[in-house]
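cron nightly-structures :: item 1 of 1
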Amino acid sequence: MISFHRIDPSDDTALAALIRHSLKAHNLDLPGTAYYDAGLDHLSQFYTAAPDKRAYFVLRADGETAGGVGLSEFPFLPCCAELQKLYLEDRLKGQGLGYRMIALAEEEAKRLGYTQMYLETHTNLQAALHIYEKSGYRQIPRPDFVQHSTMNRFFFKKLT
């Protein structure tokens, strides 16, 4: 059974482990990626500190944390949120859950008043690139305001 809920402190350890495992599996356990984000072990603190600007949804499969997706204010573009930390356990890939998670984040972004989305990713994450493009994100040149310096692919989408 698949379900989603908003992040709370009980999710922090499992999410940090999932994110680090995924990045390591794609040779992205490098400085300049989420692997080394200072708050990775306490994601709930970040996302619940400003619920009018941020959200993180945890995917549970058969009662266990199996993925998640977040969004946060993105101060470099007007009315823009950044799609953040979209991760999914390998065993669940290919079932359309990535698309569901993106749609969930986009709906929440619209509810919070955002009109556009930005994201950073890496060429090593081929499945993610495919999902972003199929979800209507278009690649843009590397902006000056990159948050994770190791990321090398950047996308933008206007929300309708």
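cron nightly-structures :: done
The first helix runs from residue 12 to 25.
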